[in-house]
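Instructor's aside before we start: the two examples that follow are unrelated to each other. I chose them only because their records fit on one page, so don't look for a connection. First example below.
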Amino acid sequence: MKSLTLALCLLICLLARAQLLKNLKEKVESKAKSRLESKKQEAKTKARHAVLDELDQLKAEFDSTDFDYAVLIGNPEFGNNSRIEKLPATKKEVESISVLFKGAGYHISILSKKRLLKKT
């Protein structure tokens, strides 16, 4: 009977040890997954901040230079001997686009007709 009790105690100890190891393994895995997710989130946040910082720098560079001037080109006149077709519809396009730019505060120069001819 002693040996049976001893065997039973040994079995209980082994099962308890196995259960403890299983619980420990689950806790370690859970903690590792939690850390991994935390590191992933941290990396995403860091990357997002790096991109936003770079965009802010680009915006600051852009804002510090004076880009409030637009040159619009349309309705060219290529001369009588040109094989290029005339583009009269571009006059309306340039006028429509100039309204948009003016509304955004741009100074506009429109080049058309003979003002486009290259003088040599």
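Example two begins here.
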Amino acid sequence: MTVLYYHIAEKSQFEAAQNGIYAPDAYEAEGFVHLCSAAQLSGVYERYYKGRKGLVLLFIAFEQEDFLSRTLILEDLTNSGERFPHYYAPIPIQKIKGHHPLEPRDDDPLTLDKYFLSVINKVSSL
């Protein structure tokens, strides 16, 4: 069973991935890579990335063994009632199945949802 999660990355950090792994600055600081589901993308973008340039959306595929090994954990670290996927290791490049530059033109939540859905559909069809 393959599950796709998404990660908003700085393009420069993604392009600098070395030795077959991607480890953003947040991984170094917190010990895990922040991920989200398709349904969580707009909210994550709005809260943490709104107005920033040079971003890319990574499409990352996980298998059942990632959950079983406890490397990938769904958790609510902010007590918001919403669980987010966190990956407790650098991301192997082979898990990244696609990427797309992020250039939303409107910050309206409904427009953002449509934008992210179109990006997901575009990359998934490749």
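The chain has a mean pLDDT of 90.
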